[in-house]
Write a structure and sequence with these properties.
By secondary structure, this protein is an alpha+beta fold. It folds into two domains: 28-73, no CATH class; 87-200, Immunoglobulin-like (Sandwich), CATH 2.60.40. It contains three helices and twelve strands; from the N terminus they run βααβββαββββββββ. It has helices spanning 38-49, 52-63, 103-106; strands at residues 31-35, 69-73, 87-91, 97-102, 114-121, 127-132, 138-143, 149-157, 161-166, 173-181, 196-197, 199-200. The strands form two sheets. A ten-stranded mixed beta sheet has the order 11-10-5-6-7-8-9-4-3-12. A two-stranded antiparallel ribbon has the order 1-2. A hairpin with a 5-residue loop joins strand 7 (138-143) and strand 8 (149-157). The radius of gyration is 19 Å and the shape is globular. The two termini are 34 Å apart. Residues 1-12 have low confidence and may be disordered.
Length: 201
């Protein structure tokens, strides 16, 4: 079961955001189901079992993810921003990305975190960026695939927010998503809130 992406001029379709539940039940009315072969299911189970520390603590729960049918969420396109998400993001008229981080909703330190951005332009391959959220006033905007510096972003803080503004226009985006997370896995969950839709002003 799948949902076709809306048409887009040019060779590239708008990317479809496909999500899966890490904790809690997945609403079936929003779910698409991927059916695995028995061999694929066995390969997935073997890959799960390699994580020795997880097997010591939660073997039954994690091995149960190796099922013949895997449910996913398919949010509608264009999706509205999640009002409960700690990020608000938009591309302004000049093509610059502005991300507001509500620290009261994030409820944690931003140290060691980065913004991960996926943007879709007309007729082009999706662009992926990483923006480290540092204590400095300026940070690099990195191409997430190559690691090459693609521009700069200004970081400013208010009493309740951290605001990250790309000082270099990232182009005319048709749509996209942003999330806040750790660049690499740590001891604890490093992707706490998932993706937020980027709005166009």
């Amino acid at each position: 079961m799948s949902r076709p992406a809306p048409p887009l001029e040019g060779p590239w379709a708008i990317p479809q955001l496909i999500a899966f539940g890490v904790h809690g039940a997945l609403p079936q009315e929003e779910a698409a189901v991927l059916t695995l072969s028995r061999q694929q299911c066995d390969i997935k189970r073997a890959a799960i079992q390699i994580h020795t520390t997880q097997m010591l603590l939660s073997r039954k729960r994690f091995v149960a993810y190796a099922q013949l049918q895997e449910p996913f969420r398919l949010p509608a396109w264009p999706s509205a921003p999640n009002a409960n998400h700690p990020l608000r993001a938009e591309v302004d008229a000049g093509g610059k990305l502005v991300v507001q981080i509500d620290r009261s909703r994030w409820k944690g330190s931003l140290r060691g975190h980065a913004l991960f951005v996926v943007m879709q332009r007309h007729g082009e391959h999706p662009s992926c960026y990483k923006i480290p959220v540092t204590g400095a006033a300026v940070t690099d905007v990195l191409d997430a695939r190559s690691g090459v510096v693609a521009g700069e972003a200004a970081i400013e803080g208010t009493a309740t927010q951290t605001i990250v503004t790309a000082t270099t226009a990232l182009g005319s985006a048709r749509g996209g998503w942003v999330k806040l997370g750790r660049p690499a896995p740590g001891l604890f969950v490093f992707d706490r809130v998932g993706w937020q839709t980027i709005s166009n002003s």
